Amino acid sequence: MWERVEHYSRLNGVSGDESAVREAIIEEVKAYCQYEVDALGNLICFKKGMVTPDKKLMLCAHMDEVGFIVTHITDGGMLKFTTVGGIDSRVVLGRAVNLYRTGTIGVIGTKAIHQQTEQERETVVKVEDMFIDIGASSREEAMNVVRPGDCAVFCTDYEEFGDGLLKGKALDDRLGCAVLVELIRSKLKFDMYFVFTTQEEVGLRGAKAAAYSVNPDFAVVVETTTAADLSGVSEQKQVCALGKGAVVGFMDRATIYDRELYALAYKLAVEKKITAQTKTMVAGGNDAGAIHTSRGGVRTIAVSVPSRYLHSGVCTVKKEDVKAVLKLVYELTETIL
Questions:
Q1: What is the model's pTM?
Q2: What span, in angstroms and rounded, lies between the C-alpha atoms of 186 and 82?
Q3: 27 flagged as catalytic
């Protein structure tokens, strides 16, 4: 599974431009399920199990990652840009990025510190005051390799380090995609749908369309979620922590989760000896926000991998937590229906 996680992390797929990720997933699942791609680019798979249930279950993970999009090219060849998805400007400045349509590498910069006013030095630089430097000296030179609308992602190395930790870009939510692929390629008790969604990071757009098409009775969203288990952060505000297992939340900013499914997840975790935790704060959101209100409503739960430094170039997770998420999601698929 870890080779798959690394492969997916290295793929580039900013919201609305997920084709490379989708094609890689199709290559791995096409022999195990029926599939189709809808108008928004969602990959919708149907996996035949040993039993056809009366109710319909959908598992969901999103393919897209946060990134950047070029909005303008200056006379001097610098690229003005904005973010795609929620990226804190404090993790952007000075980072190398890959404008992956052409493989052009650039560096995000801003006005030199000795040219800044005293007020500018004391405030966080806004994205609108930054640029991507690709080494071009004119707009014409830059236009040979880049055009407005091109997307960029963080340049970062996928690496394992410390006590079973790994870091990389786009682990939100390529980890969820890897978990779903693992399940599709396994023997399952019930028929079910697996949906790999687009545009989650810009408003849950793919999930809204996919949930309407599939029309499930139940949904399990497989995600990553913010872990703030860092020095100086009180336990109450850490949200969740690495090494404490799968995260099953009762509420976030987009969803109040089905209470029976929430209880079931913890019951299964205890019975099957799967490490699990809940969030200590109401924070974040995911595709469940669009799914649970689709049509006449969908009973929904989310199971997430805790991740430090979410929406940066170095999402950091613990491998044991990923294993716990895989085990718990599998047990839910065996039990919900």
A1: 0.96
A2: 41
A3: no
